Structures are given as C-alpha cells and as structure tokens.
Amino acid sequence: MSKYDPKSLKAAEFINDAEILATLAYAEENKNNLPLIEEILARAKPVRQGKETHCRGLTHREAAVLLACDDPAVNEKIYAAAAEIKAAFYGNRIVLFAPLYLSNYCVNGCAYCPYHRQNKEMPRKKLTQEEIRAEVMALQDMGHKRLAIEAGEDPVNNPIEYILESIKTIYAVHHQQGNIRRVNVNIAATTVENYRLLKEAGIGTYILFQETYNKERYEKLHPTGPKHDYAYHTEAMDRAMEGGIDDVGLGVLFGLDSYKYEFTGLLMHAEHLEAVHGVGPHTISVPRVKRAADIDPATFDNSIPDEIFVKIAACIRLAVPYTGMIISTREAEAVRAQMLKVGISQISGGSRTSVGGYAEEIRPHDTEQFDVSDQRSLEEVISWLMKSGHIPSFCTACYREGRTGDRFMSLCKSGQILNCCHPNALITLAEYLTDYAGEATKQKGYALIENELKKIPQDKVRQKAGEYIATIKHSTERDFRF
Ligand code: SAM
User: Fold this and answer.
1) Per residue in 313-364, pLDDT tens?
2) What are the C-alpha distances in Å from 468 to residues 391, 442, 461, 478?
3) Cα 402 to middle of ligand 1, angstroms
4) Is the Cβ atom of 347 under 6 angstroms away from ligand 1?
5) Which residues are bridge partners to 171 per DSSP?
6) What is the DSSP letter of 52?
7) Spacing, Cα 415 to ligand 1 middle (Å)
8) What is the model's pTM?
9) pLDDT, tens digit, for every residue of 277-299?
10) Among 445, 452, 440, 414, which residue's Cα sits nearest to residue 430?
11) What is the spatial distance between Cα 328 and Cα 326, in angstroms, rounded to a whole number?
C-alpha cells in the first residue's frame, strides 16, 4: 500500500487514498468538537503583521472538520471568516473571463461529457484560424480581455501545434479597441515538452480539472482513451510546472464522487504543489456536473445541493486563502451571488459553450458542452456585479508584469493590493464602460469608479490612476496598468 507523502511526485502518494479515508474518519469524529472547531477557525483568520496581512490557511484535516460540521452557528462563522479573508486579499473585485471552445473532437470516453468518442449524435467541429478570428472579434466586441480556451483531446485533430497556432491567432486579433490580453488554457494532460511550448506561447494559467480524485471512480468514468490513466492525469500539474508554467488551476467536477472525498483530495493536491514547487494553485475551479447532449446529471449519484456547494467554496477559501476561485456559467444567478460572498474571485460572463458559438446571432446548442444556467449578457453581469457592491475587473496586469507564481502570492500578502490590483480593476472597468457599455451602465460605472478611486491609499497612485481613466474616457489610448 502507498504511503502518504505530500512531497512525492507519485499520484498514489500525494493523493493518498488511505490518508483521505483517515481524514474523513477524523472529521466525522470531530464534527461536534466545538473547542477544536473554534481553534481551527481562529487559525484560519487573517493576521496583520506590520504592513502585511497573512493567512496561514488550513491543512486538509482541519478543513475537513469544518466541512463535516453541520452546526448552523458554526457555518455562519465559517461564512464570516471566508468573507473576511476574501476582503483582505481580493477586496470587492471580480475578474471576468469567457471560455472559447476550439474543437469538440475527442478520443476519450468521459462518462459525464457529451464530447466523448462514442457520442455519434454530436456534430464534430474544429474552428479554422479564420473562424477563431471571428469568435475573438465577437468576444472583443462584448468587452472581454481574458479567455480560457477549451478543446477535447485528440492528437490527430487537435495536436499541440493547432493549440499553439490558435493562441497566436487569438493574441493577434485587435478589433477596434479590443484585444485579448490573457489566454488561459484548459486542455488535456500533456508532456513537459508541450507545457514548455504553451509557456513560450504566452499562456496565463494552465487549467486542468481532476474530475474526481477517487482513483477507482476515475478509472470507471474514463473507461477509454489516454485520459484513463489516473496517475498521468493527476501528475500533470507537476509536469506543467517543470515545463515552466507557474500558474496552474485545479478543479474538481463535483457530483462524480462524494464531495467530502473530493474536497480532501483537492486540498491535498494544493498542499502537494506548495510542498514541491513552493507555490500553491493560482486558481481553483468548482464546476458541478450539468445536463448535456446525452448526459443526465442524475446518473451520477453524488450531486450536491446549493447550500453544501456554498459551504465547500467557503471552506476552500479558508484553507487556500490566496488562491483565485472560479465559478462558471454552469451556475445560475442566485447561486453565483452566494458564492461571490464566500470567496469566488473570478466568473465568466456571456459564455457560450459550443464550438463557434460567439459568432452566431442566436445561441447554438448542437455542439454545446453543457447547458449554460446563467444566460445573461456580459453587460447584464457587469451591471449586476456593480449593483451588489463589486468592481467588475478585466485586469490581466500581474502575468504581463511577470507577477506569476509566488510573486503573485507575495503581492497578495504584502497589502499592496489596494495600490495595485484595485487601480488596475478601475482602469480596465473604465475601458469596458467607455468602449462597450450602454449609457445606463456607463453612468453607474463611472460613479462607482469615482467612489472607489478614493480608496487608493498612495497619493501618487491615486492621482495617476485618475489620469489614466481620464485619458481612456477622452482618447483612444488604452492598456494602462500598475
Ligand atoms: N478536454 C480537456 C480535458 O479532458 O481536461 C479539457 C476541456 S473540457 C472541454 C473542460 C471540462 O469540462 C472538463 O474538465 C470537465 O470537468 C467539464 N465538463 C465535462 N462535461 C461536463 C458536464 N456535463 N457538466 C459540467 N462540466 C463538464
């Protein structure tokens, strides 16, 4: 039997089944141990040290106890602590992005995904570079600056050369005032060499969802194709880091296995990255299985209700305080609102999950990966965010200024966020309002910017940010950043 070792590079040792089961038993035993729970909550809180704010995070065992506890009073404390941590490191900014589906050709047999090879009903489509240009123009015309590209795994139809060429095409499109400034990549596990090529192509985050951390379940749900190999998939982030990508994004597809098992595995994965590479996951995504072409989510008997889903997000925020947390348009408006309060820092807006969907007038469904619950336009999402006290941000500055990996994490800790991320959010929001928003959103947004500018502590930064925003409003100069 494999021994648990967070520093090991072997999947069976850093995501260790025996350790997960022992953690779940420990959590069950202690779920009503209020003194222990109070201690864990106190450990999770942010601490000021001079100018810096630090959060220690929680171990997977500590966090599992909080997740297991079903005392409503404790839950309220968990939500309050999560909100406090989020405010300390991410403020009220919410970063926006859109997925871009390049190809639904796929050789895998994933039981939850309609792109699986056996699905003969699904029309297969792969965008040409010309079609990608049309998609990107449509996305730029909405106001997007940050994309996550998605593709099935197919070495013949979607080889790495195709992905690299597509990234080049995306960065090269400048339609009117638009440009895409960060391309995140969500493609199947690959080799160190290919990760190196992705890094050279200038990608932001490499995202790969584990789907499920339970090896046995994983193998059943991925019966055929290269994705069947649990160890190769689970060790992908180590290869990505070896290839020079230091922003990696983890995620679990909730609904496939017990949420407590997945939660523990996810935190162990984050601990492993920290232990081996000195930097935790840049982001964590929390997708839930959705209805899709030949997929009925009811087939998977581990679906989770909204209140558990929100609690998972809050516990992740406590355990991995500096990580960005992402929620997609898989979720409807009401759940998204609750999730924002407890820790989500990035959301997608105006998404289409079909190949070539953005260039179409009417939302196409034939090549859709899953149903989109939040069907609002990007502008509606922006307006909604502002109404609920958030600053919609299109900022991509960190990675373009080389603040990736642990350099991003130190910015988070140093308390410089109000002098850096906050003005960058306001500047990019001003761009969005000036170039893409309707009159009502513009007025609301400019008023919010005026108010939020006052919160920048350093006089010089505040003044400069104000100047940049005035320039954006009155000229065609763009892309200012701190
Ligand atoms: N093909 C790549 C891979 O295998 O990792 C990544 C791209 S895939 C388009 C992105 C993600 O969509 C998958 O990792 C999976 O978690 C998610 N997904 C697949 N089917 C889904 C469904 N029915 N509902 C929600 N999410 C789904």
Assistant:
1) 999 999 999 999 999 888 988 999 999 999 999 999 999 999 999 998 888 8
2) 17, 17, 10, 9
3) 29
4) no
5) none
6) E
7) 35
8) 0.96
9) 999 999 999 999 998 888 888 88
10) 445
11) 7
